[in-house]
Amino acid sequence: VTDSRSDLEDLHLYATPREQRFRRFASLEFEGQLYMTPHDFIQAVTSDEPKHAKKWRSLSKQELNQILMETPPVWKGSSKLFRNLNEKGVISYTEYLFLLCILTKPHAGFRIAFNMFDTDGNEMVDKKEFLVLQEIFRKKNEKREKRGDEEKRAMLRLQLYGYHTPTNSVLKTEGEDLVPRSYWDTLRRSTSQALFSDLAERADDYASSLSDTTLLVHFFGKKGKAELNFEDFYRFMDNLQTEVLEIEFLSYSNGMNTISEEDFAHILLRYTNVENTSSYLENMRGSIPEEKGITFEEFRSFFQFLNNLEDFTIAMQMYNFASRSIGQDEFKRAVYVATGVKLSPHLVNTVFKIFDVDRDDQLSYKEFIGIMKDRLNRGFRGYKPIQRYTTFKSCVRKELYSR
């Protein structure tokens, strides 16, 4: 064990909510830096709290090497990757942020995410390009560190990012104000090398100082020389989304092919700021007398729709501006037009019965969208809601600038 419980709580005072959550669920430590196992990550995105109080276990270099040796290559990925790896994997804090981005990303935007990493435009992402994002996370984090005991902040920096050096020596900072807040937009226009040449030039330096992780070996091979193509990148993102949804679904289905409509309502409301969930559940029980059940395909299609919530919101506002009521047919059409996702009539009916509190068979879209935005803040119940991630650039921007 590397730290006492009192020290854990003490450092929490200097951490942001996401940093606090990572530290609560992480179970491994190597050379002072904390890591999650794949099992820890799954717990962090499907549970409110760890099942057991975490004590960080120190990994030896030999143990870490053995874990990485057993990491499968990206072409052997599946929607059971994290479950199969279980405790045999290490995930850094910046990778945790990256994986959180993936969970709320629409399929249509996967190409944009890939292009963010592919800074030289050769349709492949190498390890060096991937690590530039990690260094951007670290650099931006320094701007929002909480003021206070410098020693404590240095300890927290080591735990999360694995470096001891003073913040002003990690990267060149001259001209920093010239980097626009919306730099991912600039990156998409293929001008990133001019803006981030200092990061790219130093990528080899910080790559050599970082320990390899399960994700780096999975993407770029044990020697770090492999390159990642879009097809493999897409498959990884799709598999991760599917895996987390499968785990949530299976936790309620008890081996059956469906979950109850009430269970579906529980899952939708579990990470929201809705205080009186019982009123929604009672309303639904009275409106759906015969239980039919929600299949996994219906369940998955709904969460694919949620990852496109911003586009759907625009479509719904058009109905609102026209003073049109929103019935089930209008809702289903708006979902398909905005997101390309077809929701089954039974699923749409179930959603209406959950949220149609006054039972007029019309949806209050403002209330529905507000609650669903909360749901996309998976794992941060009780914190101030943040806006959903509409694109990879906004996802990263939220991670970098949120406190």
TrEMBL record:
Gene Ontology process terms (BP): calcium import into the mitochondrion; mitochondrial calcium ion homeostasis
GO MF annotation, one: calcium ion binding
Source species of the chain: Setophaga kirtlandii
CDD domains given in the database record: EFh_MICU3 (cd16175)
Pfam families: EF-hand_7
Gene: Micu3
Gene Ontology CC annotation, any one: uniplex complex
InterPro entries cross-referenced by the UniProt entry: EF-hand-dom_pair (IPR011992), EF_Hand_1_Ca_BS (IPR018247), EF_hand_dom (IPR002048), MICU1/2/3 (IPR039800)
Keywords: Calcium, Disulfide bond, Membrane, Metal-binding, Mitochondrion, Mitochondrion inner membrane, Repeat, Transit peptide
Entry superkingdom: Eukaryota
Protein name, UniProt field: MICU3 protein
Domain EF-hand: 105-140, 343-378
